[in-house]
Amino acid sequence: MLMQTHEARLKALREELKRRDLEGFIVPISDEHMSEYVGDYAQRLHWLTGFGGSAGFAAVTRDHAAIFVDGRYTVQVRDQVDESLFEYRSIPADTLGEWLIEKADKGAKIAYDSWLHTWSWVEALENVVGPKGIEMVPAASNPIDAVWADQPQPSGAAAMVHDDGLSGQSSAEKRAGIADWLSENDLDAVVVPALDSIAWLLNIRGADVAHTPVALSYVIAHSDGRAELFIAPDKMTPEVAQHLGNAVSVRGRDEFEAALGEFSGKRVSVDPDFGVVGIAQGLRAGGADFVFKRDPTILAKAIKNPAEQQGQRDAQERDGAAVSRFLRWLEETAPSGEVDELTAAAKLEGFRREHGDLRDTSFDTISAAAGHAALPHYKVDEDTNIPIPPGSIYLVDSGGQYPAGTTDITRTVWINSADGAAQPTAEMKDRFTRVLKGHIQIDQLIFPQGTNGGQIDALARQYLWEAGVDYAHGTGHGVGSFLGVHEGPQRIAKPSGGQAGTSQELFAGMICSNEPGYYKAGEYGIRIENLVLIVEQDIDGAEGRYLGFEPLTFVPLDRTLIEKGLLTEEEIAWVDSYHEKVRALIAPQLDGEDLAWLERHCAPL
After folding, report:
1. Which part of the chain is the Peptidase M24 domain (predicted)?
2. 102, 323, 358, 513: which has the fewest C-beta neighbours closer than 10 Å?
3. Per-residue pLDDT tens digits for 194-223
4. 3-state secondary structure of 531
5. What is the pLDDT of residues 482-539, one digit of tens each?
6. How far is CA 37 from CA 196, 363, 587, in A?
7. Which domains does the chain have, with CATH numbers?
8. CA separation for the pair 230, 305 (Å, rounded)
């Protein structure tokens, strides 16, 4: 029998826990690969609670339940989750360990799915609750799967070959690099569970996860350059098999767990951030000497080779034309008051598809009007959708997946009134211009080799700080090459507060976003985001190696929101130079009214 209400689903889960003699269960947003986006079959938290955000977890005992989210989802969780069923808890102020100590009895067994959590997560939690007599136990199987009658099956989409001309390096060359790394570290093999790492290593892609072109699989790479790919047989095609060649043996995905027991006496590496508890337990049970080391593909994947860099430029040019056409359409139609957030998002995707080769959006488009724009990670749906009010700010953060590259761009624009008389407030223009000044600081920065993202983040915030304001998210994240739109290990963010990646050294070839912002709760939000490529700088007399940023994203900025008097002559020159580059790259792809709009918006300040 299908359970339509979240109350019925919670009741069914509790009955299943009671049947298994368990006091509680932890429900994350996660899959077996610790992916950012997960397939429908793994959306257990959404099924149980109704929460549709991309980060958070629930804890359920026989008598209590809570949902834990961070500040990005404070509003969303209250809109989507019934407080009479799940109490709201805020991360990081509230912790799971403290909640369990408060709600669970001494001697209670709290279960977790060992294929949805990392070793360090379990270890840290056990250190907190163990001394209080609470036992964390791996569930024999996921209890939600036992009661979710209409749970979708994992995607059956076929894997596909990613052309070596776009990847810039063959899979054999990449596997040889991994083999060298294994030998240098006296290791026999490495388990690669992260889906984007597998896609990069084997030069394959898939359609199993929304927004990220990956195929559900595992890889074990060996020190002799061989690799084993564990993937459902119906995903394999003759083209993929031929592409992989004899050095990559293909086994069923359901054989992976047993294969972990084949390494008795061998030294095997697992990434601590992507290797779930089940992998470590399988290796240990089989007698392997396993160690936690960063997946050797991660840094190699982040440093784009010349072919990947050029592919990104090509994808950005196509994307820039589509976004520019959308902004012209929006400028002309939204003042009527008849355009809503969902319509705008669909229209933008339509323009991207018209320009060809779009395989997917790279994330759910943030189409945010008025007060919704003050929510940095707002996700529009049928329940939250509103008309875009004339005389207001509209923020759109979006991206596309193209075989040549992955895009991510945010533009904040003023929506005029039908009579053309509405004007942004002085505060809006002040905040937009301060965000722009910070964006320019990052774009123009030259820095020595050895610098990390945490060391440059403050440059983007300084003009906001002067006005006594700030923003709560990071300034930049890595981006994949027809892979994840959020790709590590690099990150530009405050070095405190647990922001992963801020200590990672920045290398030439890495791609980062540059996206400072400002958000006034309930009223409006501002973010300006371009992607940038880290490149070497040729400086006469330089003492050492220096790096800088090459802009990759080319779409006009909204001149209506710029307070020119706040810009220095150098900043004005930057805006004019940027718009000249936009015109040069995008104009050849446009004609008619689209071209006229672009020329008008790229005119000098």
Report:
1. 313-535
2. 102
3. 999 999 999 999 999 999 999 999 999 999
4. strand
5. 999 999 999 999 986 545 668 899 999 999 999 999 999 999 999 999 999 999 999 9
6. 11, 9, 35
7. 6-147 (3.40.350.10), 160-294 (3.40.350.10), 303-601 (3.90.230.10)
8. 27
